[in-house]
């Protein structure tokens, strides 16, 4: 009887040990949110696609993409607060502006939420930033403008710039690079006009530029580029349009000659690498070092 009791006890102890090992071996699950500036641009869907791919490969991520319907600081702050309230372990953020969200990020960090920037950073320390070298990409766009103006035999004239707003770090840097490329080349660069990323607003601005006699227009993001191309299309004039980002609408405008080129980023890389880095930090495999990774840009023409 004693022998039977000891065997039974041994079996129970082993069962408990194996159970404990199984529990400890189970991968920890993490809640990770992607918060972009808005839901308007196909570009953000590219970041989401990269995040989904990484989440599927890792298998221990509860991932969600959320964003305001339009670019708005207050709405993006609300999204950050909601993510924290819903138990976020990490937030991948494309900041609408460099300063507006810092208080919300500070509160998130106080609750041990890891912050990773994708596309556009805020002025607040983060685990890492995955983004295009936007100033360099803007300079590339400026060189494409110069190349196409020279090809058309246009040696002087006014050039307009359409961007999102005066605060978004990524598009501000693109404008800076574009202006640097055109500086001293004999063209007059007009004051930048802002459309909040809305293609309809951008079209109205571009139409006004064309009325002013602009020989070229640069659209610094997807909505700005689509509006620029549509305005050139409707005007019937030979204005050089250079865009930024990629979408079905931009591809069509390039195919039909209403935009000469667009700067295409790698949003899926931003999302994929950003989410993987978040999990690596959460599991203690790597330390948060604030690294900035240039995910590259390509020039796409007809």
UniProtKB/TrEMBL annotation:
Signal peptide: 1-25
Pfam families: Peripla_BP_4
Keyword Signal tagged: yes
Entry keywords, A to Z: Signal
Superkingdom of source: Bacteria
InterPro entries reported in the protein's UniProt record: Peripla_BP_I, SBP_2_dom
GO molecular-function term, one example from the UniProt record: carbohydrate binding
Localization annotation: Cell envelope
Positions of the Periplasmic binding protein domain: 34-285
Entry GO CC: cell envelope
PANTHER family: D-ALLOSE-BINDING PERIPLASMIC PROTEIN-RELATED
Sequence similarity: Belongs to the bacterial solute-binding protein 2 family.
Protein name (database record): Monosaccharide ABC transporter substrate-binding protein (CUT2 family)
Organism of derivation: Hydrogenispora ethanolica
High-level lineage: Bacteria, Bacillati, Bacillota, Hydrogenispora
